[in-house]
Specification:
4-stranded antiparallel β-sheet; 19 strands; about 30% helix; alpha+beta; disordered N terminus
Length: about 350
């Protein structure tokens, strides 16, 4: 029987006892996943107003850049497919596409938001997708068209694609971008200590009193954290894993992380986690940079280094854990778990 599983890649730790009085927590369901915002030591009114604005922003982003329901993004995709040139887009979308194009180039186009048609062929353009393999002829045609972000020209809030096969899907970018937007809103609203969790992509502001926020890295094959670690002010962490969205068919697992080189779901890695130390757009990078590291297989460390990321962990297809020294020094592993290799 085919099975379908959607799981968050990280778990945010909560507090106990009287400390809960200083913790405010609000949840919602956006981007097809659970969203949680925790604030610490802010008044209830301040926290609720700030988080409400964050959730409204998440809803706006979800509607504006949805990959298959009517949105600015689907309108752009229709124009590209029709061969239109110099297509006007909002300043925000132009900025996002410019950034995504740069990230794609750094990662050898393994992070490839231009593969929307391929994602649809595999059935992942749905919250309730069916376990079906794509038609081989359609799959071959899509791969031979070789859509990639390098096909786009973006200038003066206008987009032109030299390849009509480009169909944009920002699903591997949007959660990280939303983290950065949430951080901006919370700080502007006077909330200095918060933890924002969008389906396992997490960004921390400030601390939880005298201690850092603490999060867990989900074990890719067991219902428990692989490890926990402190997440400090301005840091973000994200995981790409084959357990987050997948189906099983004839005993084989097909995950939503598609390799643009083959057109098939990637194999060889169960999960890659990246921790981004404080920098501009840390949330965005925690989301997007994990894709080339995941798809890079044995070259995962090289791809993390390209983005200046020293804190990284990989679980390969056999369950073997590899971790960088910088991240290993901060991890508390689950019972019976330890890394097989610690890398510089």
């Amino acid at each position: 029987m085919a099975a379908l599983l959607c799981a968050a890649s990280l778990l945010a730790g909560l507090l106990g006892g009287c400390a809960r009085e200083r913790l405010q927590q609000q949840e919602a369901y956006v981007f097809g996943t659970r969203v949680e915002v925790l604030t610490w030591d802010a008044s209830e009114d301040t926290s609720r107003a700030a988080v409400a604005e964050v959730l409204r922003e998440f809803d706006r982003l979800h509607r504006a850049y949805h990959a298959w329901e009517p949105s600015e993004l689907t309108a752009l995709n229709s124009a590209i497919a029709a061969g239109q040139t110099s297509i006007p887009v909002s300043p925000e979308l132009a900025t996002m596409l410019t950034d995504a194009k740069a990230i794609a180039a750094t990662g050898d186009e393994l992070f490839n938001p231009a593969l929307g048609h391929l994602i649809a062929l595999w059935g992942f353009h749905s919250d309730t997708f069916k376990p079906l393999r794509p038609d081989p002829a359609e799959l071959a045609a899509t791969i031979s068209a070789h859509p990639q972000m390098a096909d786009l020209s973006i200038a003066d809030n206008r987009v032109t694609s030299r390849n009509p096969a480009v169909q944009l899907d920002l699903g591997g970018y949007g959660k990280g971008y939303a983290l950065d937007r949430a951080a901006t809103i919370l700080k502007a609203r006077g909330v200095s200590n918060a933890l924002i969790n969008i389906g396992g992509n997490v960004l921390a502001l400030g601390s939880k009193g005298d201690t850092p926020w603490r999060v867990g890295i989900q074990h890719p094959r067991e219902p428990r954290p692989l490890a926990t670690l402190p997440l400090r002010d301005g840091e973000a962490i994200g995981t790409s894993g084959d357990y987050q969205r997948f189906f099983e068919l004839d005993g084989e697992r097909y995950c939503h992380l598609l390799d643009p080189r083959t057109g098939h779901p990637a194999k060889g890695t169960q999960a890659v986690t990246l921790l981004i130390t404080p920098r501009a757009l840390a949330g965005t990078l925690s989301d997007a940079a994990s894709k080339p590291a995941y798809l890079g297989g044995e070259r995962w460390r090289d791809y993390a280094k390209r983005f200046g990321i020293d804190h990284a962990l990989r679980v390969d297809a056999t369950g073997r854990i590899e971790v960088t020294r910088a991240l290993n020094d901060r991890l508390q592993y689950g019972e019976g778990l330890k890394p097989a290799a610690i890398l510089d």
